Amino acid sequence: MDLIGQSYITSMKKKQDLRFINIITTVKSTIIKHDMIRLGDRIVVGVSGGPDSMCLLHVLYNLREHFHFELIAAHFEHGLRPGEDEKETEFVSSFVKGLRIPFEYQRPVRDIKNGQGSLEERARLARYAFLEEVRKRYNAHKIALGHNMNDQAETVIMRLLRGSGISGLKGIPPVRDGVIIRPIIGLRRDDVLYYLQKRGLQYMKDSSNADETFLRNRIRHKLIPILKQYQPNVISILSRTSEIIGMEDDFMEVRAREWVDTNVLFKDGIIGLPIHPFKGLHTALKNRVIRYLLKKRMGHLRRISYEHINAIIDMIHGKRPNMEAHLPYNIVVRKVYNWLLFDEKKELEDFYYEIPGHGKYYLDAINSWIIVEQVNSVNETDKEGVIFLDADMIEFPVVIRNMRAGDRIALWGMDGHKKIKDIFIDMKIPLDVRRAIPILENKGLPIYLWYINKMDNRYKVRSKSNNILKIGLRMEKTPLWEHIYKEASHAIG
Amino acid sequence: MDLIGQSYITSMKKKQDLRFINIITTVKSTIIKHDMIRLGDRIVVGVSGGPDSMCLLHVLYNLREHFHFELIAAHFEHGLRPGEDEKETEFVSSFVKGLRIPFEYQRPVRDIKNGQGSLEERARLARYAFLEEVRKRYNAHKIALGHNMNDQAETVIMRLLRGSGISGLKGIPPVRDGVIIRPIIGLRRDDVLYYLQKRGLQYMKDSSNADETFLRNRIRHKLIPILKQYQPNVISILSRTSEIIGMEDDFMEVRAREWVDTNVLFKDGIIGLPIHPFKGLHTALKNRVIRYLLKKRMGHLRRISYEHINAIIDMIHGKRPNMEAHLPYNIVVRKVYNWLLFDEKKELEDFYYEIPGHGKYYLDAINSWIIVEQVNSVNETDKEGVIFLDADMIEFPVVIRNMRAGDRIALWGMDGHKKIKDIFIDMKIPLDVRRAIPILENKGLPIYLWYINKMDNRYKVRSKSNNILKIGLRMEKTPLWEHIYKEASHAIG
Q: Which domains can be identified in chain B, with CATH numbers?
């Protein structure tokens, strides 16, 4: 087989095929610029059999001595086009055999036709999982993929139209996590075809076209030709722009992370952002910090819009000390005095505890302690959450539970009973909070609602009461909460 | 005249004309968000008579009590379309008269048809100069212009296609220099037309169309409708993207400026960048710092490409201690050991000095001192620039001058003379440097070339020489240069 080597490049130089030489030089400088390959690296190349991956494999094969690395070719069969798929595998396999490097291929273990998300997304995930599996099996360092500059430009346009903001405009990263490398990201599609033609290499109709979305195809075949009428260099300009944006995006991320590392508290999945230092940040960094923390909390930023970020920043700057914003995926951002807490809205299970008598009991459902004791007098200085009852009216076991449909309670100065649901509605307590409010039940009837402090009038301690029962409910605080509530209570004075 | 006021908005609310209310709300929040107007501001509104500026004037007129500001309407007549121009002025004038606010207009003092740059650019500059002049005359604080969100999106696309990088993508700033404000930048063009229609307001075919470039018109009327097929919200998405990019661009600029302020030396128009601390910066900030310094040195960044910036950064990181890069507009960036100097390539005038005898003389053309003295021996430890001659061969006055066509010199070990031009060519000395090299002339003939250290063999001090003449050439250093050369000579060791 006729392969490119130093001698080949020399002979091409004589023929003045500068374009061919430029293609090799571009790949080389892409590798150097992004520090893609290190001495002794073992690299898994994803080869679909299409022009990009064939060019990638061939160029890398011929640069392997220049950069001192080893190659493994890996082909993933999607199993979506019976007949065609096998032909493709056969084609790649026989080509790789000629290069005398290891070849791995896989038919999907599970049918990727069914499952969550789009077919394209599932195929992509299965392909990446396979490549990663091959990388681990071979103890390899990198996975090389055949994205080119046109893919880059198409991605930038697609994301620009989608409104993905700066992080989207940076496009496909030349290196991701130090593992995924894209050595031909600096080549235009026509460079790839030119290379293949000059080397007399064959390729299959790129199977990745099959999992391209309709939008990408329209952008490639319709929109980009139109944009070229306005700017013939649109591909390289978009690629260049995304490179600069990628660089600056990284800088912003680094700054945001630095600030978070020295200012933000993390505990038990809750994130605590101190409001005062945050207010001093540059607007751009404020946006980045909020995005960074949301991503940290949610694991992604799907369905988070610019408006969400702005609402949170407005909340921080607003005068109201206690507010909350409800975001997608059950995320709640709470302003608690000088802190902003990123937490998850928890769907509380129903809970029901029988309290046999005096003592201290832990209620794990609401992460709280309940303390029941006999006392001699009502101590008015006692804290919130502590109630005093006429002990003679109480029969143990009492019950601590959350609300049930039809619950009623007799309140002070009222004849008859009132529906607990109506109390909640009157007080505008949101549905998910209602389920977390502990109710004290005695003899099968609700007699006290914690937090909103409503008590059945018959149980109150009166001058004639002989025995007083003190029941205190105290939330077990994590160190983060301790810290924040200490500040909060200090703020309340 | 029927004008919008609070009562009007209330009545519209009853009619559920939410779109109209949203338009007012959008302008209000744009003003607040960008802190465009302060209590008691006096604002000059540029009114062309087209839909945007008519809408702007009318909205501002009706918000003037809400935000407590005063208005002056100013109309600039380009004088490019005889007949039509006067009609437009008449239209704007009579409308403004109805509002009972001051009205200013101007026909161009000088014919803007002729001059440097494009007609559009000249018209724009003349218009801005007029508005600024009105602002000063009225002691006003702001100039309000009627750019809308479509203008913004068109600008972003135009610059994206031009490859203007991030600073281009940020588009039209809502506020520039605290003076130019654009209160309707948040309105789409169809909002503007809707507003005018609802208020029964007339307008002229926007005269700004006349100074729109062909490219902008094509983008507006052809490309944007195509992009809308891909993304119906393309206008607001581009506007939003440019807002975020603008914010982050500002952050990057602030960081770059901060770094420059504490690290870079400025003296006599020369900029000195210390290389060691620069190398530690994030890549994105490196780019920004170089761009910032070039802009500082050149006053603009025209014709400066990403490649220029990269070349400079590569030069900094390269191993060669002394290099220079030649940029457009005669800017030279020199690497002098641990410093990078941004300077202008100076076209040196011819110079010619007669030195009458012993003594110290200042040669202002080359900013240097020449010292002529009688000495007893050749001191080998003497510095560069100092020469020793057989004094008996010299006849005063000697001459210090730069090269002339036809100059020849007799060198060591050579029979006959050699053309000085050929010496320069052999040594690959660039043309502009040749003109700066001082030549010592005796009895009408060149006998020594400084810097490249070539001497006519007959003048050298020999064992038989009775008298020795020492001539030293020393460049007058500015403090910046002193500093840098001290480091440089330390580096040479």
A: 6-246 (3.40.50.620), 264-344 (3.30.465.60), 352-492 (no CATH)
